Amino acid sequence: MTHPVAPSLLLLLLLQIPSSLSAVPAHPAYADPASCTVASSSLDQDPLREAEYGGAARRILDITHAYREDMPAWESDEPLGRFVWLLKTMANGSIANFSEMKLPVHSGTHVDAPGHVFQHYFEAGFDVDTLDLHVLNGPALLLDVPRDKNITAEVMESLHIPRGVHRVLFRTLNTDRQLMWKKEFDSSYVGFMKDGAQWLVDNTDIKLVGVDYLSVAAFDDLIPSHLVFLESREIILVEGLNLENVKPGIYSLHCLPLRLRGAEGSPIRCILIK
User: Fold this and answer.
1) H-helix or E-strand spanning residue 210
2) Is the full-model pTM beyond 0.85?
3) Cα 224 to Cα 124: distance, rounded to the nearest angstrom
4) Of 143, 134, 263, 155, whose CA–CA distance to 200 is shortest?
5) Which pLDDT value is given to residue 56?
6) What is the C-alpha to C-alpha distance for residues 108 and 94, in angstroms, rounded to an integer?
7) Helices 194-203 & 222-230 angle (0-180, nearest 10)
């Protein structure tokens, strides 16, 4: 469980983020810069799948889950399965390799648009291409939440998130249990209950909510929580984040969904800069 942060100190840090990026000696989850050095790859090695980039002064942390055939799919005992097909291959004489992708838009690390749970918003065109990039990019607070319960109003109140904080990433028991690394969907994941969502809307200035499993809402309060969050069209939900090995604190968050017109969700690439 995170410790309360003095509102004045937190807001000061949020204001200082752009100028302080170059002053950070190393990513806080590592003992020293050498322990997180990015190695170079060569053609005779497996490609590196890096989650961290940059030198000691400025670190980029990729908090997006790589899409894998064995990652969990919503409400399915079977994993996501194959999502890329090689239609043309140089091995068979084509002049280039050419693949096709078929993927549910709410797979892996993704974003929800208001039309996900409101039909009138869907029909009005409030798709992922209408989401505000100013909300999806900027200073963000990463918090650890209590591990023994869903995110209720009581939990939200205990986190002492001050006014003026617009983006919060909630790390839960889902990360500890490594649920995004399992093949099957797990309905026991931690998420927001309706009263927790309502408390956030009524008592904070948060406009972006990030979570570490496939839904921001607890399975037992799935639609009610989504309705609370998305009704105003002011809050953006980012789901399925990879928050392993990242210390709680203040970061610069950058999230970019695909410009999928007519889609109520989209895969999204999210990074933190410290």
Assistant:
1) strand 208-211
2) no
3) 21
4) 155
5) 58
6) 31
7) 10
